[in-house]
Write a structure and sequence with these properties.
alpha+beta; 4-stranded antiparallel β-sheet; 10 strands; 53% helix; globular
């Protein structure tokens, strides 16, 4: 396997993926923009060290980022060079393990995504499996025991050099706030190899659930099991707790885990509400979690802040990128009514930006005239004492800076994009 890893084709593919993903620099401060010249200079030495088993990765840079619940998540960022080698390792290992992965594992796998996991969850619930064992693994990526993971990998990968390289990445120390810390467990989030390693470990859980004929959905470390009675849910929950603790050595966050019913269950940013369609008694439909709506609106608010030094076209471009990504992810949910209301607010925010950009009264007057307002009205509105937000919501801008005019500048209607 080590020769596959260091082949020219594999390393070039790995380089391209790391370069396209961009990402921050590691402890050496070298960015992906300088990666090509770095690899060209050191290519022979790196390949030789990998093949004879002496390659030593640099420490990982630990960076804390805020989570949606207000807490912090620790990301581990390898150097750009180490990311290329990890990506190359991922590319040769993935095919060997992919054939053994189970049907209802949806995270970080080819042709699988979060949307499929959410759809499967809804199908189970609407098929009558409405007692849900919801298990939250406590700091999963920080708690993975190396010896458990390496033993599972050894079953399929017998190449000593490959295993040694993998172990060196797992054991690489982490630099947090200037202090170097040893690592004896955990798979750092932020490295190209960590999603595959998490799937290799939790595939053991998937196989257990399959053997027992249970209905489940797993996306990375987020998983839930669906049964028909509370009694069955308690039995399954207890068995899974013991299996995870004793076999996989993974602790469970008992505060966040429990037996749920559809109305108090969330999966990958989605919630469930009773369906009011005719003939749909006892059925549920998807909606977006309130916190996700709030976060989406907050991002739109930042992008439409009038004091941001950005051209209007650039502002529209950034908004469109956010809108496309968010709607594509939540497209299965019932969001049209809320999108319509949010879009009205967004258009007024854009009108406010335009009004603020016009600044001086004479410029406002001239632009209003160009938009079809009479000279008298244009003069009066250009000198109004109303605040900018009030003007943005007034008919004077609503009937002039119309949705059609915004579309000519590249604006994408939220509702129309959702309906596509």
């Amino acid at each position: 396997m080590i020769k596959q890893l260091t082949s020219k084709e594999n390393l070039n593919e790995a380089y391209l993926k790391v370069y396209r993903n961009k990402g921050a620099a590691g402890v050496d401060g070298l960015s992906v923009q300088t990666l090509r010249s770095t690899l060209q200079t050191n290519r022979k030495r790196i390949i030789q060290e990998i093949e004879i088993g002496t390659y030593q990765p640099l420490p990982i840079l630990g960076i804390e980022i805020p989570k949606s619940n207000g807490k912090m998540r620790l990301l581990g960022i390898p150097t750009a060079t180490d990311r290329v080698i990890q990506q190359a390792l991922h590319q040769v290992m993935q095919p060997k393990f992919e054939v053994d992965f189970q049907q209802h594992s949806y995270g970080f796998r080819p042709q699988r995504n979060a949307g499929q996991a959410i759809a499967q969850s809804l199908e189970y619930i609407n098929s009558g499996y409405q007692h849900i064992v919801d298990i939250d693994l406590k700091s999963f990526f920080d708690e993975v025991e190396h010896y458990v993971l390496l033993e599972l990998i050894y079953r399929k990968v017998k190449c000593k050099q490959t295993l040694k390289l993998l172990r060196s990445f797992l054991r690489a120390p982490i630099l947090i706030k200037g202090k170097l810390q040893k690592r004896r467990k955990g798979v750092p989030q932020g490295s190209p190899i960590s999603p595959l390693l998490s799937n290799i470990l939790l595939n053991e859980l998937d196989k257990l659930l399959e053997r027992r004929g249970l209905r489940y959905v797993r996306y990375a470390d987020d998983f839930s099991v669906y049964v028909k009675s509370e009694k069955a849910a308690k039995r399954v929950g207890n068995n899974l707790y013991l299996y995870l603790k004793q076999k996989l050595r993974l602790p469970i966050n008992r505060e966040k885990s429990g037996i749920r019913r559809p109305l108090n269950f969330n999966v990958l940013g989605h919630s469930f509400v009773a369906s009011y369609k005719k003939g749909a008694k006892g059925k549920y439909q998807l909606v977006v979690e309130k916190s996700k709506w709030k976060a989406f609106k907050a991002k739109l608010k930042r992008l439409t802040k009038k004091t941001i030094p950005a051209a209007f076209d650039e502002r529209i471009h950034r908004i469109n990128l956010l809108v496309r990504g968010w709607i594509n992810y939540y497209k299965q949910a019932s969001i049209q009514a809320k999108l319509k209301k949010l879009e009205e607010w967004l258009r007024n925010r854009l009108r406010y930006c335009i009004w603020h950009h016009w600044k001086k009264p004479d410029r406002k007057r001239k632009n209003l005239i160009r938009l079809g307002i009479t000279q008298g009205q244009a003069y009066a509105w250009s000198r109004t004492r109303m605040g900018g937000w009030a003007v943005a919501q007034s008919p004077i801008l609503g009937t002039t800076i119309t949705i059609e005019r915004l579309k000519k500048r590249g604006y994408i209607s939220l509702v129309e994009y959702y309906k596509r």
